[in-house]
Amino acid sequence: MIPGEAGTRLLAAVVLLAALACTRPSPVPTAVPSTPTPEITPAATARPAIPAPTLRQTATRVPSAPEAVNRIAFVGGDNQIYTVDPDGSRLRRISPDPETPGLLAGYTWPAWSPDGRWLFMSAIIAKTQTQKSNNVAYVADESSPEMDALQIHADESGSQGILPGVIHYPLWSPDGKAVVVLAATSDRLLAYLAKTDGSPSAAFFGGAPMYVAWSGDSNRLYLHQGERLLRFGFEPNFTSEFIGSSALYQAPAVTDGSDERVAFLEDKGASGADLIVVWPAEERRSVLMHVTSRSAFEWSPDGRLLAVTVSENNAALSYNELLIADPESGDTRSLYQGPVISFMWSPDGRRMLVAGLHPEREDAYRWSVLDIASGESTMLGDWRPTQEFGEMLAFFGQFAKSHRLWSPDGRYVVLSGEPLTDDSKTTLGDLKEHLWVIDTTGKQEPRVVGAGYLGFWSPR
Predict the structure, then answer these.
(1) Which of 108, 150, 29, 79 has its CA nearest to residue 391?
(2) With 90 as the cut, is the pLDDT of residue 42 above it?
(3) Residue 229 neighbours by CB distance under 10 Å
(4) What does the alpha-carbon distance between residue 455 and residue 207 come to, in Å, rounded to a whole number?
(5) d(C-alpha 55, C-alpha 58), whole Å
(6) Strand runs labelled E in 346-426
(7) Where are the alpha helices (DSSP H) in 315-421?
(8) Residues near 222 by Cβ (< 8 Å), separated by ≥ 6?
(9) Closest-CA residue to 181 (of 198, 195, 199, 164)
């Protein structure tokens, strides 16, 4: 997925790996500061003051309820993986115990399996503070009383990660039986197929930049590397098929389920590229629209509509407009005009979470929710993202497939960072790294549910 040079998030003082350069301000996410946060004024009407509630309990090694649903997984200030209920209760640590004799470990980037049972996590491991660290990946059963973690992948020696703060990129197959892991070597990215049965991960493609999307039946993988879009099969051997060519997008969009539709760009030279939709089972292909510059797109949860961002400048940090297209009818309409950083469909496909540029601050985004049918916009607020959350938004075309901000019922979203207040709108200050749950209906005030820098909601 990600073009860039290798890098890692700085782990906390309790981990002290040789590869890391500084500590985090919060050692363990046992409680949230009890002082109230200042007033948030994102919309025309000012919000009342928002208290910062404390967590209901400290992190424990106890089993969760039988059904591990509606949970938020996050990375704490001590670089351990935790899960928590949306009200801040039942905080649990999921990552393996770093106090194991002879082991120093820091974990990051949790990713839920489609059924909400398993969590993928990347780790930096070293046996001593001076030993060269190793990058590995685990999956852990969030519902297990033992909370054992299974190693499913290990990087080649010397790997530092695919982006600053991003060790791997994982994408679960829809059936939850496999994970594609993108990892870095000293000179390129490698795509690995890892399975949850404990068998060794297998590299099947290399290059950069690289973006991926599973087929709805979990039998094939679409991989966009550079300009090439390839379709891979895995049984009985790795096979590949050329699909199209363009460098003006990140990840292809593939619908869930058996009625597969694939959206991607096809290069048309200096004029830009055509947005193509393919129905593989019907051997049908159509041109949905022409774009003159880079674009991002994603299917609605029911696979009927395609959200498309368009831009006028390949070098711009944001897109100019968000469109909604119906490939069957060919109808396209504008949903939002303005600088768009990212968008994510709600689980029911009725609304869209949009992050736009802040009009005055380069380190903040303006969040809103759009009604797909009416186009009505509801302002959620202005927020400073953590470093990792900012990386996710920059590559949202890929991360939206694997890391969810919406609650399963489509009412709430989780954001990592801090809201802008009257004071922080003019004063930079230190970023307060918390996980905030936002009620998109506005009936409840935003609330802090954890002290950490990166959090994602379970899919159910």
Answers:
(1) 108
(2) no
(3) 25
(4) 29
(5) 7
(6) 351-357, 365-371, 377-385, 412-419
(7) 387-394, 396-399
(8) 212, 213, 214, 215, 229, 230, 231, 232, 243, 252, 254, 262, 264
(9) 195
The sign of the CA dihedral 130, 136, 140, 145 is: negative
Contact 182, 162 (CB under 8 A): yes
d(CA 270, CA 265): 14
Sheet with 202-207, side-by-side order of all strands: 169-172, 178-184, 189-195, 202-207
Rounded distance between C-alpha atoms, residue 91 and residue 109, angstroms:
18
Integer CA distances (angstroms), 375 to 158, 305, 343, 400, in order:
49, 15, 14, 21
* Rounded mean pLDDT, 376-390: 95
Using CA atoms in the order 71, 75, 77, 83, what is the torsion angle rounded to 10 degrees?
20
- Residue 76 and residue 80: Cα distance in Å, rounded? 6
| Sequence-ordered alpha helix ranges (H) in 119-269 | none
Structure tokens at 272: 């830009």
> Residue 55, Cβ neighbours under 10 Å: how many?
21
Domains and CATH numbers, the chain: 72-457 (2.130.10.120)
- CB-count exposure of residue 417 (10 Å: 0-12, 13-18, 19+): buried
The pTM score is 0.85
Q: Which residue has the higher pLDDT, 90 or 38?
A: 90
- Identify which of 120, 122, 89 has the alpha carbon closest to the alpha carbon of residue 105: 122
Contact assessment for residue 349 and residue 302, using Cβ atoms and an 8 Å cutoff: yes
Average pLDDT, the chain: 83
Tell me the pLDDT band of 132, cut-offs 50, 70 and 90.
low
